[in-house]
Amino acid sequence: MPAKITKDVLESYLNCKYKGHLKLTGQQGTKSDYETLLIEMRAKVRLAAIDKILASRPVEEIPRNIPLTTSALKQGASFLLDATLDDDLVSITFVGLKKVDGPSKLGDFHYIPMIFHEGQKVRKEQKFLLELYGLLLSHLQGHMPVQGIIWHGKECKATRVRLNADLRRTERLFRDLKEICSAASPPKLILNDHCQVCEFRQRCHAQALQEDNLSLLRGLGEKEIKTYGKRGIVTLSQLAQTYRPRRKGKSAEVKDRHSHPLKALAIRDQKIYVFGNPQLPKSSVNVYFDIEGITEEGFVYLIGMIVVENESEKRYSFWADSEEQEGLIFDQFLTTISRYEMFTLFCYGGYERAFLQRMKSLSEKKELVDRLLKAMVHTLSLLYSNIYFPTYSNGLKGVGSYLGCSWSEQDASGIQSIVWRMKWEATLDDRWKQNLTTYNLEDCAALKRVTEFITGIPSTMDSSGKTPTAGHLPISQISELPSPFSRHDYGTPSFANADFQEINKCSYFDYQRDKVYLRTNKLLKRLCFKKKKQKKHLKAKEYTALSSTMCLHCGSSELDTVSKYKYRRVTLDLKVTAGGVRRIVSGAEANKYRCAKCSETFFPEQYTHMPRYGHSLKSWAIYEHVAHRTSFENIEESFRELFKLPVCFRHIQVFKAIMSGYYKATYDAILKKLISGKILLADETAVRVKKIGKGYVWVFTNLEEVIYIFKPTREWSFLHSTFKEFSGVLISDFYAAYDSLDCPQQKCLIHLIRDLNNDLISNPFDAEFKSLTSDFGQLLRSIIDTVDRYGLKCRHLMKHQKDVDKFIQSLSASSFSSEPAQTAQKRIIRYKDKLFTFLKSDGVPWNNNNAENAVKQFAHYRTIMDGKMTETGLNDYLVLQSIYQTCKRKGIGFLNLLLSQEVDLDKYSQNRPGVSRQAGIATLQPERAFFEKKLRKKHPTIDSQTSSQD
Length: 950
Description:
Lambda Exonuclease, Chain A, 6 domains, 6-stranded mixed sheet
């Protein structure tokens, strides 16, 4: 006969499924002092609550210790105490029921459940327990209670809480318990925070050690453990194998991010792993600070600290008998620490900082408290991100014990300190007070040991950067781990020997080819001689004479020539026609003038503004780079091989900045059209940028226009300022950033289908999830068939709205036990108003593949340039890429647009010129002249040439 679910089993299952199983099988463990204390405190709350209830009604009117049945409830007593519900599944004693008004099958009244809780605060566990009792009660009275009562705290306060009307969670819990009752094997053991007070803690910990259980790592939650389990990782040894150090040359690992695989590796290797060079602030006075308090009651009763000054150590303890003395001991603490002008205050965790911030509002010495907060250092935060000890947790007890610290009491812990405090309050025995002060100072000593160990790590590093064993503790830098990547890393190696360094310089390919091999190879010798004879400066066939009739500075017409020789300058350009591309070298010559009035010298304005490279040449280079993703170095080679033009790749980088600035107005016009459009498709992708690291490129498009925007982070605040006037339909994936926009939205159904498919592959035997995805697939397929037949027209698509409403309604009423089905159910219900918006509007896509296609175009470029771009260079490229992708969607030739120098896409699409005008010496447009003049200051070699005399 299967065991029944009791109140003890129910409460145990809420804390831990495995503990619920052990209770179901009738097993008992050794209760901890803390758990015993909680039971005693709950018993006191129960007696006090019953006294209050009995004081409000005659004792004979309140039935006690009776079977809980419908007939017993129909008697209509004001209260029922210790009524037992017994059936085939459960045997639970309801500690209290209260009669309230409201229709039910009992009459015009029904009952709400009551529970007793020892804590001062009502938490979600007690609320959920009330919901479980309410569900069981609803089967008897035909009505689900909407409220419950919790008697709690030392004052035995009665608090009413509203119960959740959605019963799926509570029904699922009973269903899981029923499965555990009938299952032959227990649920998987997963250690959690309840283990430190559980009666089975020693048994479960021993079993976890034997299994090498993942849950031994504190901070690794049940959800993450299940994720690792899907990958076949079920032990710490397996998890340790998954750690991979980053490639050399890549940016440093993200700080403040804890790596569970690296922690598992430290445990497996029994070695301390250090990332980077952790450093703590140095001071002549170090204060190691720890407090003890009762979290439930929200007050601190003990402040301890160790002050180290010039290798001398002083210990202080400040004790409060009651909550009223908390301010007094804080003032004593401030008075003691104010003796030191400069100090560093070390703590372990955030409890101490929260205490100081709370006391700041109550203290008159706010400036001193501000000094404390400014001088405070969290040793744990450095441990969390930079140092990995071979311990299952980063708690002070675990790390301190590993470093040789010890505590007088074997069971010393934060939980046990609460027990000692409660015993002291009950007995006023100095033995418990002594235990607490000793434990507190031992915590301070452990903090001191851990902090000094971290401070000493840099001093243990030798000149090679490696960290040897420090005493008896093995320490290793992350950089010492063998790299899993076998690919050769290119770059300049560093040599410890200066002779090796010089020898290595002489081994490079170019050096040997041009300096060594040519002496014995005739072909290389001829090639080198030919290379030296190449012309560096091209000359024009004809030079246009330019002159000036007035001074550019004062406007005077009294001009003199500086010399009889004329200066010459050439413009290198291309002429692009329908039949091909050829080189053009245009020349101009001019005298240098001196004004007789102001004595300033100058050249003719047209000569001064004459560019080194023509617009057609720049357009062709940018076209190759943006449309064909050709690198600047390869474009330079093309210029040299095809046109014999000496164009440096660094000049091409400047071309990109010039063309980006020139077409910024086109970019802004595209963005404006997107904002005023009826639909907007959005997506984003990551990119690595120099000096920034990881950033994001956002893509916004419709059926014609495309815009790319770079942001250093994934913060979405810019969406509100950029698209605040957009009133159309936004089509996007399920990233929460897009939900913040106030406009109709259509979520990409392809994204949803991919996620459901991945979960379906990971859970092939989940019948509930299969049924859900099958129903959703059939619904969506019928809609897509209509789209394929009639297009995105709402008059044909609206007929499916009834099927959609029916599916959503059925899904909302369903209750699933499998996690994938529950996740899919929540997701579909949450976005039910955004999944089928396209049924109600014409021309609204049901996916954002247009945006994904635009992302893909950038991704091709990212594969060759990731991590090599600067933020400025990337922004320039995105302007040009936006125009290129828009031209593709509009059927406009991107190269022809660049050659035309037209910035208005609509105007250009109406005229559609075939080829560019012939390149020559022409007056620059104002915008173009502005950007070229601006860049000429930084790059004078681009638009200037060494003057030559006739």
